[in-house]
Amino acid sequence: MKRAPIREMHYSFIGLANADSECLLDIFYFDSGAALVIATEIAENPGTTIVNAAEILANEICEKFDIDPMKLVFVERTTPQTRQQSFKEFQKEWMLPDDITEACTLIYFPDKLSGKALRHAQFKYLKTEDMKKFYEATNGK
Questions:
Q1: Which residue has the higher pLDDT, 103 or 87?
Q2: Residue 25 φ/ψ, nearest 5 degrees
């Protein structure tokens, strides 16, 4: 039976140096057993960013929400409202196109092995077209 999605859940986690940290989570479950987790930065986050806590957060989410780490698709999302610096500065820093309205990064773990912790996170900027595919898949279009 397919599990119901979790939408815009405020999620607290312990980041680097035991920092209280927060983000928003969207979790979409698929019939294959795969799960798409979209973690959105929030401006009020007092602690570690999603990117800097990728391994901590991914492992914790898999355990807490009973997700097979081998079937996890983990995306970090940043919008103009969630950046402490201006979004234009963020676009320039990451060499992103001027026409994007949000930035999404696929966080993947090439070393993931069944039964082992996710580690050695790698990051790939997702183009707007790629994110549209994710949104279409999660909205049933």
A1: 103
A2: -120, 135
